[in-house]
Amino acid sequence: MTKILEATYTNGNLILSEALSPDLEGKKLRVLILETPETDEELTREEKLTRFLEQAKQFSFKLPKDCKFVRDEIYDRYTVYR
Highest taxon of the source (predicted)? Predict the structure, then answer.
């Protein structure tokens, strides 16, 4: 399950913008912290896109020159696992 929520950090506690499902009670969760600037609402769509792409670059990598993407091969694997 993946869910994105906003939270406020106050006195050592994260206060979520909405309650979590009771099904999650007692489970360990992974939390990814992304700081939201106070002026985020003032940014234009283009500025938000630029900021997102800059952050996404952290997770990119170069493929080897001999790497080939074969779409049919991917579809074959999909039907095997289905």
Answer: Bacteria
